[in-house]
Amino acid sequence: MPPGFNLPFVLSVAGALLTSAVVASTYVWPFVRAMPRHDALRLLAAFHAFRFLGMNFMVTGFVSSELSPDFAGEVGWGDFIAATLALISMAALSRRWPIAIPMVWIFNIWGTLDLLNAYYVGATKIQNPGLFSAGIYIPALYVPLLLVGHALIFMLLLRPGSEEHRS
């Protein structure tokens, strides 16, 4: 195994991703696909508005003092931007602004890339996931849930004909 590879952590993330996908496909997708498009997107964006939680990576004592401050800042500010974009998307969808759907695209692309980047940087630069301390549940549980949420949003955005009868 490569240096720094932590099988229990990888399995916990994989398990959370698989379980999130199964629960979403069984319970969430049938519910949101039956909703009007703007309402479904607003509901899914609301879950992402809580990404301010990632700012805790920059809070003294929340993560180990040995965790790279550059990594913590990248994660924290990336999540801050994603949460802000989610809130703007929710407002635009609620008010039916013409920029609502483009705003959701921006939020969803940013949010997805931010999470994938955090995993990539974490996997390649952080040799010990124990450095996340109390924050271990963010990449181990919350991020898989968020990734599945982003997938559902992409499915709604790409759904053919959804603009005409789901607006």
H and E string: HHHHHH
In one word, what is the shape? globular
* Count of alpha/pi helices: 6
N→C terminal distance: 50 Å
Overall structural domain count: 1
Helix fraction, binned, reads over 70%
Mean pLDDT figure = 92
Stretches with pLDDT under 50, minimum 5 residues: none
Sheet-strand content, in percent, reads under 5%
Q: How many β-strand runs? A: 0
The largest sheet is: none
Radius of gyration: 17 Å
SS-based class = mainly alpha
Q: What does this 3D model show about the protein?
A:
Keywords: Membrane, Transmembrane, Transmembrane helix. The chain crosses the membrane at residues 6-29, 41-63, 75-93, 100-122, 134-158. Helices cover 71% and strands 0% of the residues. By secondary structure, the chain is mostly helical. It has one domain. α2 runs antiparallel to α5 (137-158). The model has no long low-confidence stretch (mean pLDDT 92).
Features:
transmembrane helix; mainly alpha; globular; 167 residues; 71% helix
What's the short story on this structure?
This protein is mainly alpha-helical and 167 residues long. It has one domain (7-159).
Write the layout of secondary structure elements.
Layout: H1 7-33, H2 37-48, H3 69-94, H4 100-125, H5 137-158, H6 162-166
